[in-house]
Design goal:
This protein has about 425 residues and is mostly helical. It has helices spanning about 5-25, 30-40, 45-55, 55-75, 75-90, 95-110, 115-130, 135-150, 160-165, 170-195, 205-210, 225-240, 245, 250-265, 270-275, 280-300, 300-310, 315-330, 335-355, 360-375, 385-395, 400-429.
Length: about 425
């Protein structure tokens, strides 16, 4: 089979899988697994390459976090925080949305977008349930905030970690160059949020009064387990922040914490947690997605596309940075940004040797970082946090479709990329 035919088959399977996911003809997990196995059956990928393409660190990290969240939920802490947050916002639905957006963005910058989403989505679900309002716009806004906040630091999102390890940039370089861009983009998104929702989010006086009358002190069900869980969570977050120094994998940290909390909890709840609290549908969806994206990488499609775009910029820093920003943004909306970044990093390094202004290679790196992180907001499956958030919602009886999510998130993606384009042009050129 020629390289061109292999590439066309891989692209065809990729597009076909996305059509199944978007139209929801079949379950998204089934769609991704079918696409993955078609790549193996057609010989595009060998079984060994397909299995190596799966990021098991991500899979086991998610399992560990699901166990931690399951144990915490049983203590009543999420309901306690939900009532506290709603009271702080005086039951105002728009203020709650904006407050959760800011909290999510800040937390994601240091805890990571997926960790933050897994902790905060259960809280907003409880708030909306008590106020008798739909949580869908809140979930979408928090996902957008998580991916934006994750772009602000070196440890907030996997692409930044990869870029940091491939270059000489340190933690402060990321903050100095990326955090201002994210602040400006967040302000723009908050303004758009107010414009979109200020007259749409309504809460009845009765429900608001009921929420404000709650005595949250009595909501904690197991104080002993809560104390142990919070200590374990704090230790886990510290270890995650120091992971690159300690050389302990994130999956090991997450799984160790989750298994520890499950084992010291109620024996009768172990099977319930392991079988029903872990979102196996989301996990196997990721497994299929990793393999499908690997098909595009192995056949050279992503590299070809990147080279074609860069040929148009004639190795000039300004157009190259804009091309990288928008190419990264568009592709990251449809494929996992980790393999994309890993594929394009050698290309950026090559650009540094031939670019007409070698001292301007820095904004090209920052453009790639912003594009890959913010582009993940473009569709429901553009980033891990998106899929995880929708999975949590589904386990709570709320189905958010691809169309419902994307028609809102893509607007914020385009806005944030426009703001970041202006930031890069004004700051570096």
């Amino acid at each position: 089979m020629s390289a061109t035919v292999s590439m066309l088959i891989a692209v065809g399977i990729f597009i076909g899988t996305y059509i199944l996911i978007i139209t929801e003809v079949i379950n998204k997990m089934l769609a991704s697994l079918i696409g993955a196995f078609l790549l193996i059956l057609t010989g595009i990928l060998s079984q060994d390459i397909a299995l190596r393409a799966i990021d098991w660190n991500v899979i086991f990290f998610l399992i560990g976090m699901m166990l931690v969240i399951a144990v915490l939920r049983r203590t009543g802490i999420f309901m306690y925080i939900a009532i506290k947050t709603a009271k702080l916002a005086r039951g105002n639905p728009l203020l709650i949305m904006m407050l959760m957006f800011v909290i999510t963005a800040i937390a994601s910058a240091f805890l990571g977008s997926v960790t933050t989403i897994m902790i905060l989505i259960p809280i907003i679900l409880l708030i909306c349930n008590e106020l008798k309002i739909t949580p869908v716009p809140y979930i979408i806004m928090m996902v957008v905030a998580s991916n934006m906040g994750g772009a602000a630091t070196m440890i907030g999102d996997p692409p930044n970690i990869i870029i940091g390890s491939a270059t000489d940039y340190d933690f402060l370089d990321f903050i100095f160059n990326l955090t201002p861009a994210i602040i400006f983009a967040s302000i723009a998104c908050l303004a758009l949020m107010w414009f979109m929702y200020h007259d749409k989010l309504k809460v009845s006086r009765e429900n608001r009064a009921k929420m404000l009358s709650y005595k949250e002190e009595g909501l904690i069900k197991n104080k002993r387990m809560l104390k142990i869980s919070l200590i374990a969570l704090a230790i886990m977050l510290v270890l995650l922040a120091l992971e690159s120094i300690l050389k302990i994998g994130t999956a090991t940290i997450s799984m160790s914490t989750g298994l520890f909390l499950v084992l010291i909890g109620e024996r009768k709840e172990i099977e319930q947690i392991m079988v029903h609290e872990v979102d196996w549908v989301t996990l196997f969806f990721f497994v299929g997605l990793f393999i499908i994206v690997e098909g595009l990488v192995q056949t050279g499609f992503i590299s070809l596309l990147a080279h074609k775009v860069l040929d148009l910029t004639h190795n000039q820093a300004r157009p190259t940075s804009m091309a990288i920003l928008w190419l990264s943004g568009v592709l990251s909306a449809f494929i996992d940004n980790v393999p994309f970044v890993a594929t394009i990093i050698p290309l950026i390094k090559q650009i540094g040797t031939v670019i007409t202004e070698p001292n301007l290679i820095d904004p090209i790196w920052w453009a790639m970082s912003l594009g890959t992180c913010l582009g993940g907001n473009g569709t429901l499956i553009g980033a891990s946090s998106n899929v995880v958030a929708v999975g949590i919602a589904k386990k709570n009886g709320l189905n958010i479709s691809f169309k419902e999510f994307t028609k809102v998130s893509v607007v914020y993606t385009i806005l944030s990329l426009i703001v970041c384009s202006a930031y890069i042009l004004l700051r570096y050129f």
